[in-house]
Design goal:
By secondary structure, the protein is an alpha/beta fold. Helix content is 39%, strand content 27%. The strands form 4 sheets. A 7-stranded mixed sheet has the order 14-13-12-9-15-16-17, with helices on both faces. Strand 12, helix 10 and strand 13 form a beta-alpha-beta unit. The longest helix has 15 residues.
């Protein structure tokens, strides 16, 4: 470096944010006729941090003195670092690492940063995605292979009791995508077949078979047919009662509403029953739905299924079919599920998310979300809570205020 005449000046300004700070700094820089090479500004708790990399004029000391005088007038601190050359491009291996915690403790962040450093990665930028009802942070990481990061950080996430998603930093994150969701214990709370079984007096037996199937201990189709036979004799009006009792997972409506504004398409694929899922799709504004059809004769559930069973393989096939209808590649699909019968669908998607899932599913999926809010998925897509609330406010939706 030529100390007498540096090529660049890095100016870092910090202090209380107020209107006119950025304008004042650039007015000072404009008088020297410098070129802006790089720029970044963040506000944290009403504290502003502004970093500007500019070309250095011949009389760079005069510019430095002018910037220092401007900072003093603004009651802010400034650091000026001399350098040479343009700022270098980020290294290969660029990823988004999204961290979700309730709470997110400093010890967890220290552990995560340590694992990233172990891979040779560098955290280029940090952005808060949400502070309520969960804390979500997005790290922009370079210099590390995304698959290596995902493997290391999955172990750290389990140890720290937080959720971590690693995605390659590509344009796909900002493109229109198809989201395919499981229904029972994912889009809604609980299992519809168990709710039906309660009316038939067989809830404990059905719940036991359901749990075995979700853990992958017995074949899904076999488990489904065994459970459905226990529903034989129920009046079809029970379906209306069960639908009225369904509780949609917290954040599900927010997620669908928000992403539909961005052109996303949605599908639900369920091992449950079309008599329920078709109504649910209409209610939530979901574009496609596929599920099993209960046989009903003379207003009575017979205990049989009409046609082929939507099983583990059938869910993955539905994802591929819906992607083709929408006109997106499989890489542009996101699958969300919780059970073993979702595994093929999760693996077929560009991003497979295990939502409050069984351990076998969490280990196989690209990432896991274990908070009870389905709209936490939005943070993985780079959408912040502030953006969600602003869009809802503009559309007339009222969202609860976070605690002070």
């Amino acid at each position: 470096m030529n100390a007498a005449h540096p090529d660049t000046l890095l100016i870092t300004l910090t202090g209380k944010d107020r209107p006119g700070v950025t304008s004042s700094v650039f007015s000072t820089l404009a008088l020297a006729g410098v070129e802006v090479i790089d720029l970044e500004q963040i506000i944290l708790r009403r504290r502003l941090i502004l970093g500007v990399l500019v070309s250095a004029p011949r009389d760079w000391k005069k510019l430095a003195a002018a910037v220092e005088a401007s900072a003093e007038a603004l009651e802010m601190s400034v650091e000026i670092e001399r350098g040479t050359g343009d700022n270098r491009s980020r290294r290969e291996g660029r990823s988004h690492v999204t961290i979700i915690g309730t709470p997110l403790r400093a010890a967890a962040m220290a552990a995560i940063a340590g694992r990233i450093a172990d891979t040779g990665g560098n955290i280029d930028r940090i952005e808060r995605m949400a502070r309520y009802p969960v804390t979500a942070i997005d790290l922009f990481v370079s210099g590390a292979d995304p698959e290596t990061l995902r493997t290391l950080l999955a172990v750290e996430a389990a140890q720290q009791g937080i959720d971590i998603a690693v995605q390659p930093a590509t344009m796909l994150r900002r493109g229109m995508r198809l989201i395919v969701m499981d229904v029972d214990s994912t889009l809604i709370q609980g299992e519809v077949i168990e709710m039906l079984a309660a009316h038939a007096g067989h809830e404990p037996e059905v719940a036991r078979i359901t749990e075995q199937a979700m853990r992958g201990e017995i074949d899904f189709e076999e488990s489904l047919r065994r459970r459905v036979r226990l529903l034989a004799g129920l009046d079809e009006s029970v379906l209306d009662q069960v639908y009225a009792d369904i509780v949609v997972s917290p954040g599900a409506r927010t997620m669908v509403r928000t992403l539909r504004r961005l052109g996303y398409r949605f599908a639900i694929v369920s091992g449950g029953f079309s008599q329920i899922t078709d109504r649910l799709a209409t209610d939530l504004g979901i574009h496609f739905a596929r599920a099993n059809e209960l046989e009903i004769v003379d207003g009575v559930i017979t205990g049989e299924i009409v046609g082929a069973v939507v099983d583990r393989a059938g869910k993955a096939e539905a994802l591929r079919e819906f992607a083709e209808k929408v006109g997106v590649t499989q890489d542009a699909t996101i699958a969300i599920g919780d059970g073993a019968n979702d595994l093929d669908m999760l693996n077929a998607a560009g991003l497979g998310i295990a939502f409050n899932a069984r351990p076998v599913v969490q280990q196989a999926a690209d990432t896991a979300v274990n908070v009870p809010y389905l709209d936490a998925i939005l943070y993985l897509l780079g959408i912040s809570r502030e953006e969600i609330e602003a869009a809802d406010a503009e559309a007339g939706f009222v969202t609860p205020s976070p605690p002070v």
